[in-house]
Amino acid sequence: MTCCLALEVRPLRKQTELRETEKPYGAAVTEYRSPVVVASGYGENILFEHISATIEKVSNERTGLLSSIDELVSASEQATEHADLKKMRSDAIKEYNLARRSVAQLIDEIEVIEYEISDAEDFIKHLGQSLSDFDDASTTFFALGHLAFEYCPSCFAPVTPKDEAHCQLCDTKRVDGADDSRTLAVRLDLQMQLKESESLQVDRLQELSQKKSTLRVARQVLKRASSTIELGQSGMVTGRESAIAELSRKVGFIDSQLEGLQKRLELAKKIQAASDAKEDLNTRASRD
């Protein structure tokens, strides 16, 4: 009876131990899968050996860049470099002054043209209205015929009667068809003035458009000249300093690479540790 009880207890203890082993094994599997999912975003380059080799290579490249920067910083500037920089600044200032005067002149010319356009627009409206009024007056005159005035329309004095063939005011002798000719001459004169004014207005508008287009280009030239002066004053245009800036930019890029590689290295370590723990628990469960 005691022997049978012992045989029953031993499988029960094995089952209990197996369950106790399965708990940390499940946790280990979860611990392993989590970094593996993250690592899948990096592709196949997540092996510890590969990352370590890449870090060493990038670090050596960074050391070489820093060495080159030190050499450039310690090197004395060439006399020709100073002369070239001085000439460049002088040329930039001349270009800036020319561009600034050009912009100012164009602005003044545009303001004059805009004033002329506005004034001409009013004159064109006046001519158009005068022509319309003249046509209305001419129509009325021909409809009513010649008027006989008893009183002067200017001073209201009695008008002395004139011959019927003469004007009742100025006593000028009327000629057949002369009224039509004078009316036509006045109307043609108004039409010519209006047509010429409109033609000149078209020319002014075209000139204004061209001036504004030229002004946009001149302002771009002025902006470039101003930027060149700023670069010259800051000294960033020398070949040596440009090289230092470029090398420093590369060092900054490598630093960001190293930061990312270090994170991947830590991730690889976690994956390896989780994998080892999982295999150890798996071995223990199989042995039990």
Provide tags for this entry.
single chain; 288 residues; mainly alpha; 2 domains; 5 helices; 0% strand; elongated; disordered N terminus
Mean pLDDT: 74
- Give the distance, in angstroms, between the N- and C-terminal Cα atoms: 26 Å
Q: Return the string of H and E elements.
A: HHHHH
Sheet having the most strands: none
Counting helices, strands and paired strands, the structural category is mainly alpha
Q: How many distinct beta strands?
A: 0
Number of helices: 5
Number of spatially distinct domains: 2
Could you explain how this protein is built, in words?
This protein has 288 residues and is mainly alpha-helical. It is 82% helix and 0% strand. The protein has two domains: 14-77 and 238-288; 86-237. It is built from five helices and no strands.
Question: What's this entry about, in short?
Answer:
With 288 residues, the protein is an all-alpha fold. 82% of the residues lie in helices and 0% in strands. It is built from 5 helices and no strands.
